[in-house]
Design goal:
Length: about 280
């Protein structure tokens, strides 16, 4: 096993103080938590439990002999988390690097939560574009084409084309995240740039969230204004003001309702009732 060491200020500044080895990181990137980030998905925490399982072994090494600190760290990392799965270990590497700094009293615990939350949106936007919208589609196209030709290699081709890059990114990403997290974030904290980094990532995250709301939350009004060739729908007028306005409003309402501990099942049932009644009355398209 090799220790994760490097030159001061260029990678991880821990040197031999770090109990984390390269093999520890690789095992974490391929364990049940990492490979199954979505296996315990819930509306409340989404991938939070899987993320906690991914790094629990690393946290045990960092907080060995400090059960209360270990429990606090584990609670931090089974909270809400959602990201494109192959990118998750990269965030895990950054988190582990920051937890080492927290363990030495060099960083406030809230900082790791801020960075972790800020990274979810931007990295999910990149990860979804690469893996879900590109690699998966290409892999499916090649696999289906081979199957149509009667080749047994079709399903295997799909699995290889999609999973080889995904698994490679997991193994490389957690190591790179650890290196980046220890060196870059420490320098950013010393220079006062941490606040700017979190703010910038938050802005990008809000942009990605807004785009996702427009594409995934569909609210269309069927109310018509005017008659004949001059007729237009209220939906077209609202889209002319700001496309996706109603979807964003619906998302905000759901966000507030969940924040007040309203059951997701209740929200689903209310949505179904509103959709059926609105469609029957000709209000919703």
């Amino acid at each position: 096993m090799t220790r994760m060491t490097s030159r001061k200020g260029e990678g991880e500044p821990h040197g031999d103080q770090s109990p984390i080895t390269r093999s520890d990181l690789i095992r974490a990137s391929l364990n049940v938590g990492s490979l199954g980030l979505s296996f315990s998905w819930t509306y409340y925490k989404q991938m939070g439990i899987g993320f906690g399982l991914m790094i629990v072994g690393l946290l045990k090494k960092i907080y060995r002999g400090r059960p209360d600190d270990f429990a606090a760290a584990l609670r931090r990392h089974v909270s809400f988390f959602n990201i494109t799965m192959p990118v998750g270990p990269f965030v895990g590497g950054i988190v582990v690097a920051m937890e080492e700094q927290i363990a030495r009293g060099e960083l406030e615990p809230q900082a790791v939560q801020d960075v972790k939350t800020a990274l979810m949106g931007p990295l999910s936007g990149i990860g979804d574009s690469i893996f879900l919208s590109t690699i998966r589609v290409v892999a499916a196209g090649i696999g289906i084409s081979l199957c149509q030709q009667g080749s047994w290699f079709g399903p295997l081709a799909f699995l290889l084309i999609y999973n080889v890059p995904a698994w490679g990114l997991r193994v490389w990403g957690i190591q790179k995240g650890y290196e980046v997290g220890v060196g870059f974030l420490e320098r950013a904290q010393r220079s006062g740039a941490m606040t700017k980094i979190v703010g910038a990532l938050g802005i990008v995250g809000v942009m990605v969230l807004g785009a996702m709301c427009d594409s995934t939350v569909a609210v269309n009004l069927a109310v018509t204004i005017g008659a004949g060739d001059a007729a237009t729908t209220l939906q077209q007028i609202l889209d002319g003001i700001m496309p996706g306005m109603l979807g964003m409003a619906a998302f905000w309402i759901y966000y507030k309702a969940l924040g007040r501990k309203m059951s997701p099942m209740v929200l689903i049932l209310v949505t179904m009732v509103i959709g059926v009644i609105g469609s029957y009355l000709g209000i919703l398209a």
